[in-house]
Design brief:
heterodimer; A: mainly beta; Porin; two-stranded antiparallel sheet; about 15% helix; B: mainly alpha; Globin-like
Chain lengths: ~300, ~140
């Protein structure tokens, strides 16, 4: 909760900086900061913040390095994401930095509120799972934007180390651990002549419901190779509409876990502020089917 | 069946050029593209991020060469007679930030000239690979 509050405070602080900057730019501060925080990649080419904190869509990791730093600069952003489902609710603030359009480091904190389901399962009303997610992503080859004369996408590898604070409950439902690490390789390409961005990502994971229900299970305890992908159409420089799909392992005997998909709209006010709104469908989560609802995410950065 | 598929594939690839005009036509032909260049160059000169690049340049010559180059690139009946991109940008030590600023100013110009966004992107897709030749720092 403290983290959430400080995250929101940081968001508010960044927002106010953004507004001041817009008012009296080019100020001296801007000139100094612009050397390193160059904000010089093209609008929307940093993607938005995915639910696990990395640069991507909402569900899928993209190979794009977060923020607007070129290979000579740095981009830093914070975000707050809210997912409202019929029987659950997720809050996921985070922070990420893109270094020289090469390396991305991210941290996200997820709070998954089980609301009345917690009471039904004997955990208590509003029983909440928390998860820390530490991410790193390295761009290997290609440039999603410039390389319009070849089919080669931008390719990156990444990992996400996740720590869940509800080990006892996780083991009670058949999960094997409260800590896990996902590994992924992501290929993202902007088909500029078609105004289309396409991503495909392969993820090795043991996570149950993104790790909210721990890692591995009574049914299956090894890594699974899972797919996630996005397709997005650029309507203008600041407005993108797309869809995503993500498969997940089904490790637990108590509930069959299926795929997830979303349909999203992202609006980039400028390089400092973007807003993503989506319809998100997560299917079954433990005792409830049809967990679909709204996904809202705000990103502020320099 | 295979022959049919190949024919269909190449047919699809070739058809946009013949169906409803070239990109050059979609961008307003010679007059339209010349205006885009003029507005772009005006934008470059007014852009504090990049206008220093042009401080030693013959602006009239840049306008003329860009008009030929853009026209040729979009499939128009022009021939760019200037030096290649590597030579013209060699001494400028341009960064990706500079290149992207040029792109943004061009996007602004195309928008001002009422070029639809999807058409803008078709043209930018032809320009984007020049990043490899233009950016040297």
């Amino acid at each position: 909760m403290l983290l959430l509050r400080s995250g929101l405070a940081l968001l508010a602080a960044l927002l106010s900086v953004t507004c001041v900057r817009a008012d009296d730019a080019p100020s001296r501060l801007w000139q100094q900061g612009s050397a390193l925080f160059d904000e010089s990649r093209l609008l929307a080419t940093g993607g938005v913040s995915a639910v696990e904190g990395e640069g991507g869509g909402g569900l899928a990791a993209w190979s794009l390095i977060t923020g607007y730093g070129t290979r000579d600069g740095i981009g830093l952003n914070i975000h707050e994401t809210y997912v409202g489902l019929p029987d659950y609710q997720l809050l996921a603030p985070g922070v990420a930095i893109g270094l020289f359009d090469r390396l991305e480091l991210s941290y996200a904190w997820q709070a998954f509120d089980s609301e009345a389901t917690g009471a039904a399962l004997g955990l208590g009303q509003g029983f909440t799972f928390h998860q820390n997610i530490y991410g790193a992503k390295l761009k290997l080859i290609g440039d999603a934007v410039y390389d319009q004369d070849t089919w080669l996408p931008q390719i990156a590898v990444g990992l996400q180390h996740k720590e869940n604070d509800r080990g006892a409950v996780i083991r009670a439902v058949g999960g094997k651990g409260s800590v896990g690490t996902d590994y992924y390789v992501s290929a993202t390409k902007l088909f500029l002549a078609e105004s289309l961005l396409v991503d495909t990502t392969l993820r090795l994971t043991k996570a149950n419901q993104f790790g909210i229900l721990g890692f591995g299970g009574d049914k299956h305890d090894g890594y699974s190779a899972e797919f996630e992908g996005s397709i997005a159409y650029l309507f203008s420089r600041d407005f993108v509409l797309g869809g995503e799909f993500r498969t997940k392992p089904s490790n637990l005997g108590v509930a069959k876990e299926g795929g997830a998909f979303d349909i999203f709209a992202a609006y980039f006010l400028n390089k400092n502020l973007s807003f993503t709104m989506a319809y998100l469908n997560l299917g079954n989560i433990v005792i409830h089917d049809h967990q679909d609802g709204v996904y809202l995410s705000l990103q502020a950065g320099i | 069946m295979r022959k049919f598929l190949i024919a269909a594939l190449f047919g699809t690839m070739a058809s946009p050029a013949f169906a409803d005009g070239t990109l050059y036509d979609d961008m307003g032909g010679k007059a339209g593209m010349d205006r885009i260049v003029d507005v772009s160059v005006d934008n470059y000169l007014a852009d504090p991020r990049i206008n220093e690049i042009f401080s030693e340049s013959n602006i009239d010559r840049i306008r003329m060469e860009l008009k030929d180059q853009f026209c040729q690139l979009a499939g128009g009946p022009c021939v760019y007679k200037g030096h290649d991109m590597v030579i013209t940008h060699k001494g400028l030590h341009l960064t990706n930030a500079n290149f992207n600023a040029l792109v943004e100013d061009l996007q602004d110009a195309m928008r001002k000239c009422d070029i639809p966004f999807a058409t803008q992107n078709r043209f930018l897709a032809l320009l984007a690979p020049y990043q490899h030749q233009v950016v040297t720092r």
